[in-house]
Amino acid sequence: MAVTPEPLPRTNAVDFRAPPPSPVAPGRQSPFANDDVLSEYLQQSLKVPDLVLPDRVFPCQKSVQNPPRIDFGKLGSFESEMGFKICDLIAQVGCLELINHGISPDLMGLVLFLAGGIFQIPPEKKKTAARSPERRYGFEEIHGEEEIRDQSEEFLWCDETTMKSEMEGIWPFGFSNFSQEMKKLSRQMEEVGRRIMLFLEQHSLKKFSAENGLPEEQESAGKVWCIEKHGRKMGGDHSLRYDVIRMLIKGSEFSHALSLHLWSGTTDFHVYSKKGWVSFFPARNSIVVTIGDKLQGWSGGQYKHVIGRPVFKGENEKSNISMAFLYSPPKFTNSTKQDDDFTISITQQFILCVLITFVYRFLISIYHFFCIKVFK
Description:
376 residues, single chain, 3-stranded antiparallel β-sheet, 13 helices, Jelly Rolls, alpha+beta
């Protein structure tokens, strides 16, 4: 006999209604005396900060603005008014271009040609001469993506005995000749830098002050060359921004007053600053001079520190060599403090008075002696 299962009890849907809402609490007065102050505080604290993104930090290109092109032979013959106008233009752009500077184009071309041989050294030998905290010369290691590392190479040259011995070990047939020509060029570039500094100081709004620099730092900074081999050109802003960041790091590492740029072939020249960057086409065999961080400090901010870089458009990567001479005048002193050099102390004045008295008495004695002898 089949057993019929008993039906389950029917559930009344009404029994499963949502619970009624909680009773609304009676309103009570806020414990704060001034609700407006609380509301303003909450609005300020909950506001999302205005973030400065990298795209906004990177400077934009300005309209084309050529720097003043100056004939080096006429540098000391400008009238005061014209000199001030030229210096004002230099302060706006951050650089100037020198023509007829007196340095032989053959010497410049020879040094640039010999500099290209540095980058022909095998990679395993370059590692032995890589830069480190202990040495301020050698090959600069390029970090980043592979295509960026292939873009360029850098070598920093300075006139030091230790560098000469190390480099002759890995480049025995070329480094001695290269250093010899570099020393010739360095002496002439130092004279160019000295004349420019003198011109800027004479025609600036106020006299320079060297309180922000140490003499030993200035002497060493004037003997550093940054040599770069420019590789294949990459398009887009990625490569440009990477170059600017790398130049900013290098510029802050080697403090200098002026940077004097040479390059091989024809190129555009870019000048980067916080306000933006400008591009111009320099004359062949000219020297482009950019303002360094030391000069910005000495001038009280009248001249702004900028970064200069030639940008090659040619396809011949091996001949795309540029060099920058980081110059600072040795033991630069403020011309306004020249009175201190001629100050005579009280002791010196007393000694001088005594000497004058003795000389006077001696002359009087001689005079009386000859007078007596004549009248006799």
